[in-house]
Amino acid sequence: MELLLLNGPNLNRLGKREPDIYGAETLADIESRIQRLADESDITLACFQSNIEGELINKIHDAGDREIDGIIFNPGAFTHYSIALRDAIASISVPVIEVHISNIHTREEFRHTSVIAPVAAGQLCGFGTAGYDLAFQAFLLKRKERPS
Amino acid sequence: MELLLLNGPNLNRLGKREPDIYGAETLADIESRIQRLADESDITLACFQSNIEGELINKIHDAGDREIDGIIFNPGAFTHYSIALRDAIASISVPVIEVHISNIHTREEFRHTSVIAPVAAGQLCGFGTAGYDLAFQAFLLKRKERPS
Amino acid sequence: MELLLLNGPNLNRLGKREPDIYGAETLADIESRIQRLADESDITLACFQSNIEGELINKIHDAGDREIDGIIFNPGAFTHYSIALRDAIASISVPVIEVHISNIHTREEFRHTSVIAPVAAGQLCGFGTAGYDLAFQAFLLKRKERPS
Amino acid sequence: MELLLLNGPNLNRLGKREPDIYGAETLADIESRIQRLADESDITLACFQSNIEGELINKIHDAGDREIDGIIFNPGAFTHYSIALRDAIASISVPVIEVHISNIHTREEFRHTSVIAPVAAGQLCGFGTAGYDLAFQAFLLKRKERPS
Amino acid sequence: MELLLLNGPNLNRLGKREPDIYGAETLADIESRIQRLADESDITLACFQSNIEGELINKIHDAGDREIDGIIFNPGAFTHYSIALRDAIASISVPVIEVHISNIHTREEFRHTSVIAPVAAGQLCGFGTAGYDLAFQAFLLKRKERPS
Amino acid sequence: MELLLLNGPNLNRLGKREPDIYGAETLADIESRIQRLADESDITLACFQSNIEGELINKIHDAGDREIDGIIFNPGAFTHYSIALRDAIASISVPVIEVHISNIHTREEFRHTSVIAPVAAGQLCGFGTAGYDLAFQAFLLKRKERPS
Amino acid sequence: MELLLLNGPNLNRLGKREPDIYGAETLADIESRIQRLADESDITLACFQSNIEGELINKIHDAGDREIDGIIFNPGAFTHYSIALRDAIASISVPVIEVHISNIHTREEFRHTSVIAPVAAGQLCGFGTAGYDLAFQAFLLKRKERPS
Amino acid sequence: MELLLLNGPNLNRLGKREPDIYGAETLADIESRIQRLADESDITLACFQSNIEGELINKIHDAGDREIDGIIFNPGAFTHYSIALRDAIASISVPVIEVHISNIHTREEFRHTSVIAPVAAGQLCGFGTAGYDLAFQAFLLKRKERPS
Amino acid sequence: MELLLLNGPNLNRLGKREPDIYGAETLADIESRIQRLADESDITLACFQSNIEGELINKIHDAGDREIDGIIFNPGAFTHYSIALRDAIASISVPVIEVHISNIHTREEFRHTSVIAPVAAGQLCGFGTAGYDLAFQAFLLKRKERPS
Amino acid sequence: MELLLLNGPNLNRLGKREPDIYGAETLADIESRIQRLADESDITLACFQSNIEGELINKIHDAGDREIDGIIFNPGAFTHYSIALRDAIASISVPVIEVHISNIHTREEFRHTSVIAPVAAGQLCGFGTAGYDLAFQAFLLKRKERPS
Amino acid sequence: MELLLLNGPNLNRLGKREPDIYGAETLADIESRIQRLADESDITLACFQSNIEGELINKIHDAGDREIDGIIFNPGAFTHYSIALRDAIASISVPVIEVHISNIHTREEFRHTSVIAPVAAGQLCGFGTAGYDLAFQAFLLKRKERPS
Amino acid sequence: MELLLLNGPNLNRLGKREPDIYGAETLADIESRIQRLADESDITLACFQSNIEGELINKIHDAGDREIDGIIFNPGAFTHYSIALRDAIASISVPVIEVHISNIHTREEFRHTSVIAPVAAGQLCGFGTAGYDLAFQAFLLKRKERPS
Predict the structure, then answer these.
(1) D121: which strand partners?
(2) pLDDT given for residue I145 in this prediction
(3) Nearest Cα residue to D19 out of D102, D131, D137
(4) What is the C-alpha separation between G47 and G42, in angstroms, rounded?
(5) Lower Cβ count inside 10 Å, N or C end of chain K?
(6) CB atoms within 10 A of CB L104
(7) How many Cα neighbours within 13 Å face the side chain of G125?
(8) Strand duo A122-125 + B122-125: pairing
(9) Residue C90, SS3?
């Protein structure tokens, strides 16, 4: 069973960037914590972060071609305008769980809408970096529902 | 430790109502499943469902007065217009986790916005009835973050 | 064969309330007139009015559970914002005929749209209190179309 | 007593056109059925259909000049933009009953509004071709209200 | 002479709820203060608060039937969407004075508009809980204008 | 020198139609009055009215082909949506003076905008049927400006 | 008989200012031309121009108090936002004819609407500086309609 | 203790202007009535009205520099667009009570919003000219809240 | 094999009308060029142009009844508002290729949207009168895809 | 003569991706088919696809610097938001033909508008992958119009 | 060489007014600093501030008539609605540099747009009172570009 | 002291691209001119241009990590939609001065708003390529304000 943890623009600066909004953990901290969870469940985890929209698209295509079992995706600012990422997700059959660290509904109005959400399997926001852990739980729960 | 599982209008018809959108489980099924999870964690769980906005407000006030530890709330259709429920949540200090069974972003446009979300601790949608389980996990994770 | 005549907020004040818009008949007058029509057609009629959204939802659920043959519904002001009532109607398979006494299109702009209409079997407005009679005829015509 | 049954653009293709939306009956079927109802009530019925906006306006003017007793009008697509038809109706004192076969509120958003409705005596939609029969009943009921 | 002091959802939590917005006084404090003012002016005062929209409607109907002399009404969050309350007020001839504790124009945009205001005799906001006193003065001034 | 007096839909009903908005004069009255003014100035006048958009377009094309000196045009309801008439006017070099009997800015909001105005030489409204006389004066003044 | 020719901001720069839009005539040229027309008709003419909104309001009040026979008013840029001027006009019973030199409908979108128009007796635009002459004719025609 | 009663454009025409909207009292009547109330409370009152936005701004600056105790302000039409007045009020620490004679919410839509309200201490409307008396009471009540 | 070349309002003036936008070719030139292409491919071509919306609808109905193989349609200004033409196209199974001579996206904003496009088989614009040739090629390519 | 066939994000997944919308052909199939057409016309063809907006911009710059004869461009999702691509096209004099495989007007509303179209030489959509062939024909036709 | 430093409403209160937004310098401080810069460059400087829109218009007209070399203009709140000031600037050929002390894009949404900007030579904001110095540099740089 | 001169998409084509909008200077010209200014002030300057959004984000992150003293940034078309760039700037404490060569307020409406501006230290536009010099002056002035 294989899972991709995908992070979009500026998430490489987690911990350094506006800690009142995003918390003090770094992306490396999160990735190693999810790695531990994956190890416990015998899941192969790959982690990838990029500030370049097209590189994220390429990773999503690759995941689709290899038919992995799921993607946990924090699209960062691309959430609000990257129709190209939306189309990439729509073009694969791998379920994508969309996660946001902050509560996007308490911030600027343009952050309230997600062009990704309509093609995501589910969305969660506002749980801080613990949102990645919940997304991992969601992945496990989604897997159980499927016939083996 | 005490938790309230609160459900809004029409959720008493889960299982009977549009199974392609909401799944085949009944509300009683969900409530007993969350009860088991609560028992395992030594958490006192109360469950309440109403189709009357004001009764939900009363329950939220009561939870605030008694300073319980959290509320998992599926506001149903009230999500989209009940500013009174929003004000009720804003008037208490108990964290509220907003959950939706379906992916509200793939449905009619008026379902894409939530007047509740800006006062919720976090929001999740699209995970089917498993969303309640995730909300329970979220409640546990939120608790851990707090100083004992 | 069973029919429910359901009236929403303020319709208990028909006759007293703004007669230039709503006419001089009271709700009791209308209910007894429709009762006579129902008697003539051997239809069991139940009448219910409430100013409380949730009580109307409960009645709709009950009609759905008992699988009655139709509902004639004047949602009053709830027409314009009660998504909870819309969801209640969508959750049952009983056909609902939406009726308005006044021509909602000649009044304030917010009265021109109905959140109920997309889930109603049909809608009629502007015929005064005779609209209830027409709705009854519509119910009969709809019945004929169905295989017995 | 005289009544005009007026149909706008594309309604000459009823039965041939999108039967899932408009049903299998032809316009001729409807016109002869309403003719029978008119005969039973000793009402002179005239039927007219045109795809040309101005010809419909001419008919409405003529009905106004001759002071007939009512018009049942399905304006088809003109419902949504023909202010000229609206003005024609406003310029006569003959009551016009607006009828739509389909539930316009479940279709494309531009079909939800009617520029005709504010000058119509009443409006009904969603009852299939039985809507014409109801409109005829509405005409009779409206007549009764008036002093002879 | 009779006056109704009517309060909508969440106002039972005044004093407990967000004191920076609503002040430290409780609803009981306000009601007894207005009671004293009423006593001084030989006015019979009734006080009612509810979180249930329909119960407020019922009270308004009752005041209309009994033809009392005025209503001071803080509709709370219902200010912004309860067309049913608006219709209830429009259906009676008792003047209604709309009062808000906070300055609704400095808060979220959806709080800037009131569906109640167009049917109110007058509106005031931003004076804290002293707004109830002003509303009482307004009631007295309004009374004077009328022929006895 | 040649002038066309062109009138759009429903203007054949002037005098019969809503006299509080449009006055008591008939179109024939106006046409003969403008004829007298034209005679005094040795101008050939043609008058045309139609309820059919395409016939008005044909007349405008014809005027363009024959290079007459001006058109006085009351487009009636077509003012607000007939882009086809706008394009017809844009396709000729004959100046078109747009006239409205009523003050379109005091009526329904959809009457406040004219799709014709951007291609008209000038526009006037609100002067009652005297607006046609003013349009005739405008035509004369416009002529004077041009080199003979 | 008395008439006021009133001009708003920047019209003192006519002739100097953007001649392709406004023509080469100065305001003095126009005022003396209208003076000649007034003399021929035995009408007392007063002319006033100001760049200060409040001074124009004062003039309008004065005209209202003195009950003169009409105002020809080019409000310049105030056309589009001065509700204060609109209210001034609404507060008097003297008819105001609104005139614009350019065709405001072919310019920036914000110039297409006039807050003055709904309280004006009539409006004309696009006839260049000849629009003032037409407005004078309109004034004469309007006078004729009134009983002496 | 010092108070400024400030009135904006067209309010000098109170009594003459549209009495059905604004009542029959003149501004002088109101000013002398408020003067009597001020005398009774040992408050120095200054009254000022202008149709010129900048003169009102100057008065507000002056009140701010002299640190008087309050301003009662009816901004008239400037309510709806004078951001300059808003900024003037924001630049002083004197509390400003905004008053409107008519119920602005029952009039044209552009009158429903106030650019002044977000910087006002409180707002009241719809109480006729008695609104000034209420504003005076509000001023007294506001004073009491402050530490001496 | 049979093809209809259909042109809407004002296209009869091609060549005469605004050559900088539409080019110097006449409609007759285009029709004879497409005729030659049709002859080469053994396709029966019919050409029709009208300024009357209803006549175009009639032609589309006729093409639908006779089940011809395709329609190349330039709806002219009707592109932007004729829902009646849209419904006519939706009511037949003949594929319709929508063509515009100019690039509608570089012109006025109201020309950017087409009510016809959602029911067209394909759309092309901006290729000048060569767009008709391309539409013909598109027709041939579409035919090849179908099973013979 | 030189032509560039440029494809934007996700078009590398043609054939794999949503075949009901985009068909079963791969991008390689299309490129080799257009290569054959280019060979027949002695045109040098270059093909390029990227998911990275900036790489597409670079290619467009390069084509502009080398002054090739045309670009056929399917911008994919960038159609709807990449103003940077629009500016790149505006900065070169090489004509760009915009092509879309699906009928963008029958899909989500955000796909109905193209920020690229105003700077494209022409646009075509809805012809499936045959749209590329038509674009090639369009390129040839455009070339003919130019003086050699 | 001559330069006008023009300041709009409320800028006379700089230093007193909201120092967190506008800084602690007074307008006199700024004017004397720019005077020194002007002296160093042998430029005649005139300074003017007014809260009255029409007085600013008069100054701009005067600058235009005297053909001075430039205007540095902070329009204050007039930035957002004074089309009259915009027209005044458009009516002269003197270049106007628009300056704002605060970053208008981080404040209320209505401050994000400037009706002045489209007729300004350039705009700068967010640099505090140093913005005036930069505007002076901009004036010098603009001068250099011109042929002497 | 260290400064980064950052340029976004298409700015590598300055001089080649639309010289009427952007002038004849190349980016290299600008960079060497700013280099000279930097040398004079003993400032280390780095220059970077990219058409790839993510590469610009990387440079901004790097500048933030190295805590340089300022960034002059012309985001080109990204100004209008790259929320990712906005977030990158928000994530660092280095002040960013936003510069545009053209007056964005006289171009297409979508160019009037900047998603970057709310996180920029200041913004300037419309000064041609001299805007970079002004931005450099702004950088120096900003530095002076800070404590050394």
Answers:
(1) none
(2) 66
(3) D102
(4) 16
(5) C
(6) 21
(7) 23
(8) antiparallel
(9) helix
Q: To which residue do tokens 């502009």 refer?
A: J64
Question: Which residue is listed with tokens 């006895």?
Answer: E148
Least Cα distance to H79 among E51, G83, J102 occurs for G83
L117 chain-K contacts, CB cut-off 8 A: 103, 105-106, 126
SS3 (DSSP) at I7: strand
Which string of DSSP letters, residue by residue, matches G3-25?
EEEEE-TTGGGBTTB-HHHH-S-
- Strand residue runs (E) in L65-148: 70-74, 96-100, 122-125
Please say if the pLDDT value at position E147 is more than 90: no
Locate F67 and state its tokens. 């290079």
Residue type at G148 in one-letter notation: S
* Dist CA G12 CA G20 (whole Å): 16
Is the per-residue pLDDT at B144 higher than 80?
no
Quickly tell me which residue has 């639908």 as its tokens. I64
Rounded to whole angstroms, the Cα distance separating F119 from F44 reads 24
Q: Which residues of J are catalytic?
A: 22, 100
Distance CA G147, CA G144 (A): 8
CA distance J2 to L129: 35
Q: What's the CA gap between L4 and F30, in Å, rounded?
A: 74
Q: Is the pTM of this model over 0.90?
A: yes
Residues D34/D132, Cβ–Cβ less than 8 Å: yes
Lookup result for tokens 């697509």: D77
pLDDT at I147 over 90: no
* Exposure on the CB side of residue C67, measured as CA atoms within 13 A: 1
CA nearest A125: which of A97, A95, A102, A96? A102
- B134, A124 contact by CB (below 8 A): yes
Residue D59's closest chain F neighbor by CA? Answer: F51
- The Cα C9–Cα A116 span in angstroms is 40
Compare all CA atoms of chain J with the CA of A58 and give the residue at the minimum distance.
Answer: J51
Condensed to tens digits (0 to 9), the pLDDT of residues J28-70 reads 999 999 999 999 999 999 999 999 999 999 999 999 999 999 9
- Bridge-based pairing of strands A96-100 and E44-49 is unpaired
Q: Which helix (H) or strand (E) holds I70?
A: strand I70-74
Residue J118, phi then psi, degrees to nearest 5: -65, -20
| Rounded (5°) CA angle H21-H24-H29 | 125
AA letter at B61: H
Q: L-contacting residues of A 108-147, CB under 8 Å?
A: 110
**pLDDT-derived band at H147, boundaries 50, 70, 90:** very low
Q: Which residue in H105, H121, H126 is closest to E126 by CB distance?
A: H121
pLDDT tens digits, one per residue of K24-34: 899 999 999 99
The verdict on I58 touching D (C-beta cutoff 8 Å) is yes
Bridge partners, residue K99, by sequence: K124
Query: Crossing angle, helix J130-145 and helix I130-145, to 10 degrees?
Result: 160
Which residues of chain F, if any, have pLDDT below 50? 147-148
Q: Which two tokens stand for residue J34?
A: 């257009």
CB contact under 8 A, D18 and I90: yes
Q: Which of I106, I123, I134 sits opposite J137 (nearest CB)?
A: I134
* Average pLDDT in chain A: 94
Q: Which residues pair with I99 in a beta bridge?
A: I124
- Cα–Cα dist F72/F137, whole Å: 11
**Tokens standing for residue I42:** 């053994």
β-strand A44-49 against A70-74: which pairing, if any?
unpaired
Do B14 and B27 touch, CB atoms closer than 8 A? yes
Residue among L61, L80, L81, L100 flagged as catalytic: L100
C-alpha J57/C-alpha G102 separation (Å) is 43
- In this prediction, residues A47-70 reach a mean pLDDT of 97
CATH number for the region D2-145 comes to 3.40.50.9100
- What's the ipTM? 0.92
DSSP J102: S
